[in-house]
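Hi, here's the filled form for the chain we discussed.

Project: internal
Contact: R.S.
Residues: 222
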Amino acid sequence: MRKLANFIFAFLILAGCKTMNKSQMGTAGGAAVGATVGAVVGNNSVVGALIGATVGGTAGYYIGRSMDNQAKELKQNVPTAQVQRVGEGINITFDSGLLFAIDSDVLSDSAKESMTKAAEVFKKYPDTYLLIEGHTDDTGADDYNMKLSKRRATMVANFLQAKGVASNRLTTKWYGEAQPKFPNDKESNRKLNRRVEVGIYANDSMKKDAAEGKIKEEGTKQ
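And the returned structure, exactly as it came back:
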């Protein structure tokens, strides 16, 4: 019953977020709520990490406002990616088919162009962490898929670092076929499950500046 109550509570919080201004989400959040929702969606997923990192209050408002601006720039610079605001962070989903050839961890030329544009935005907001996750569909052996998702997540992280994103901001994780977004029952769904996701969330410096009201609209210190 306690698990069911937590799930319902988390669902209501997430549903309510859809009707709120993204900056207001940060104000309405809070560490306790973030922990509850994070436990429901999974602490090992990008979404779980973003919700779990929620600060809330006035600091959350400033962080959310900065993330609104960064998300807008990412949507403009990388139109092939799906950019969503989650809590006080950003979730970016890259279709692996657009990044890599089948059964490959080598970035395509078009992917390099998109990742370069994304890196330029990331560098404008240095007080954030980037969580990079690799995922596959259920085609092939579990062990092979795990290794492929690791290689792809690592390739994206290495490319961003080469473009000037500090290595201490980057964390990579990989899950193979263990975290599908959709049922692996048809090719259109499998294609969506073959993906690289990036979660962007505030580091301690940004949280401190937000608590002190030192964040401007563009996310830099006043």
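Let me know if anything looks off before we file it.
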